[in-house]
Write a structure and sequence with these properties.
Protein name: Protein O-mannosyl-transferase 2
Number of strands: 0
Number of helices: 11
Number of domains: 1
Helix content: 55-70%
GO cellular component, one term: membrane
Largest sheet: none
Distance between the termini: 41 Å
Radius of gyration: 22 Å
Pathway: Protein modification; protein glycosylation
Shape: flat
Subcellular location: Endomembrane system
GO molecular function: mannosyltransferase activity
Strand content: under 5%
Length: about 260
């Protein structure tokens, strides 16, 4: 059922047809982009679950079904995303390897990654945020170094990605936020650290973990509205002034009083 739902939205992006959905746009835009790059023309109706794709090139939107090698590579990425943070946190190679092994062969993860769904994309950004946060913590002894800035910025990018796919991504924002509060509280209690230096730490986190994710999140919607410029099933949720900007709408280019 979900593949029918999100595959249809991928088609909407390819056809530039406006629609409304409860989730933010990033995941569906990536599905549409994958279909476009793999030669899907957006003509399959996605009317009900179980409909045969026949000659339609749906494979690209399923992503990992491109070939067995790609499936294996993505499983290794999932294992790496769990291995590195656990190795940093536990300092135990056996524990980290065991967890990575369990995730690689988890049938739930494998099944989710076989279909046109938002969940694998969401998991990628969630695990990326945790990985980046843990790696940034490991650079605490060399703040403001190139690697410290890289991992801190990548954490912000991953947070934007997680929020941009589904609002459940806010839970990883909460995790990173609590970690940041703990980190700042620890720095504030360090009497050898000047208030100026503490202010720099605070400013760096505001820039990378608040301003950067919000800017990227806003940019996703800018792309969303720029691409979907044709009238579609989501018109009625928006104002007449907005509908007048959609090609094919009854109000297109009609003068609408304030």
């Amino acid at each position: 059922w979900d593949e029918t739902h999100f595959g249809k939205m991928g088609s909407y992006y390819i056809n530039r047809t406006f629609f409304f959905d409860v989730h933010p746009p990033l995941g569906k835009m990536l599905i549409g982009l994958a279909g476009y790059l793999s030669g899907y023309d957006g003509t399959f109706p996605f009317q009900k679950p179980g409909d045969r794709y026949e000659q339609h090139n749906y494979v690209g939107m399923r992503g990992v079904r491109l070939c067995r090698l790609l499936t294996a590579l993505l499983d290794q990425v999932r294992g790496l995303f769990s291995l590195v943070p656990l190795l940093e946190l536990s300092k135990s190679l056996p524990a980290a390897l065991l967890t990575a092994f369990i995730l690689i062969f988890d049938t739930g993860c494998i099944t989710l990654s076989q279909y046109i769904l938002l969940d694998p994309i969401l998991m990628f950004f969630l695990m990326g945020a945790v990985l980046s946060m843990v790696k940034c913590n490991s650079c605490a002894d060399r703040p403001f170094s190139a690697s410290w800035w890289f991992w801190l910025s990548l954490t912000g990018v991953s947070l934007a990605g997680a929020m941009g796919v589904k609002f459940v991504g806010l839970f990883v924002v909460l995790l990173v936020g609590l970690n940041t509060i703990y980190d700042l509280w620890d720095l504030l209690g360090n009497l050898s650290l000047s208030l100026v230096m503490f202010g720099k730490h605070l400013l760096a986190r505001v820039l990378c973990l608040i301003i950067l994710p919000l800017a990227l999140y806003t940019a996703m919607f800018a792309v969303h509205f720029a691409v979907l410029n044709r009238s579609g099933p989501g018109d009625g949720f928006f104002s007449s002034a907005f509908q007048s900007q959609l090609i094919g709408n009854n109000l297109h280019n009609v003068s609408v009083p304030e």
